[in-house]
Amino acid sequence: MTGHLRIVGLGPGPEKWITPEVSEGLAEAQDLLGYTAYLDRVPLRAHQQRHASDNREELSRARHAIELAVAGRQVALVSGGDPGVFAMAAAVFEAIEKGPAIWRSLEVTVLPGVTAMLAAAARVGAPLGADFCAINLSDNLKPWALVEKRLKLAIEAGFVIALYNPASKARPTQIFDAFAVVREKLPPSTPIILARAIGRPDERVTISTLADADPALIDMQTLPIIGSAATRLLKRADGSHWVYSPRRVEVPA
Ligand code: SAH
Questions:
Q1: pLDDT tens, 68-90?
Q2: pTM of whole model > 0.90?
Q3: Residue 11 to residue 79: CA distance in whole angstroms
Q4: What is the CA(229)–ligand 1 centre distance, in A?
Q5: Which residue has the CA at smallest separation from atom 6 of ligand 1?
Q6: Cα of 163 from ligand 1 centre, angstroms
Q7: In this structure, what CATH number is given to the domain that contains residue 156?
Q8: Are residue 193 and residue 91 in the same domain, yes or no?
Q9: Count of domains for the chain
Q10: Whose Cα sits closest to atom 9 in ligand 1?
Q11: Ligand 1 centre and the CA of 116: distance in Å?
Q12: HSE of 57, CA atoms in CB hemisphere, 13 A
């Protein structure tokens, strides 16, 4: 039997945000691999084997998934959100590039999921309605100086910015450094969205301005969205706000 590796995205949390294609891919799998917290969200069927691993072992997990598929198994490797956004798909292709030539014959399919920034944006309006970018704030795989440089240049370019992996127990202070950069470059009135645990029971979304935003509220389950100078806070009848970034950009003549 020919093996197949499916790299699937579970979305940010709730079952209803899992695509039918991902559900089918999970049902067809003989082996399920992933970080324990993600695998816990997948019902285990009688014919399936579960291989849970620690969050940090991405490359070895990728190799394990590839080896099983090369041996003829139907394998699903799961990520939260979308598997191509700061997640397992890139680890798999990195492993294939470094691995034996036979791995390049493997059938690999990437099944997309709803990534955190899209779910977060949908909660508050349309903050990503104009040009935006996503920056992984972790310096595990790149130097912090480069993170700061990209943040500065993205702000200068006028992008709305979604920040993934903004903080962790091992990196509690970098989000404060990142906010210092943002405060240097953007006006205090810039809208800031802190979207935490979107789609999960403990979801919490705060909309504020750069003047009021508190980086101490940001943890590893948070997706901050930094507005651009053009992003608007739109006051609703009940005093709460929508946030949107206008599609049209007015360039001074
Ligand atoms: N592949 C995932 C991202 C992995 S990086 C995706 O596409 O969403 C992990 C980071 O994503 C977290 O640190 C957090 O910043 C963000 N994130 C993931 N799920 C989230 C959720 N439900 N709510 C808010 N942020 C989330």
A1: 999 999 999 999 999 999 999 99
A2: yes
A3: 8
A4: 25
A5: 81
A6: 9
A7: 3.30.950.10
A8: no
A9: 2
A10: 165
A11: 5
A12: 13
Which protein residues touch ligand 1 with a CB less than 6 Å away?
A: 12-13, 79-82, 85-87, 115-116, 120, 164-166, 195-200, 220-223
Residue 23: phi, psi to the nearest 5? -60, -45
The gap from C-alpha 245 to its chain's centroid, in whole angstroms, comes to: 20
Q: What is the extent of the structural domain holding 15? A: 4-114
pLDDT for 126-139, tens place per residue? 999 999 999 999 99
My answer on whether 160 and 223 are in the same domain is: yes
Lookup result for tokens 């399920």 = 32
Any idea what the CATH number is for the domain that residue 81 is in? 3.40.1010.10
Which pair of tokens denotes residue 50? 């579960």
Q: How many CB atoms lie within 10 A of CB 106?
A: 19
- Cα–Cα distance, 87 to 248 (Å, whole number): 32
104 and 123 both lie in a single domain: no
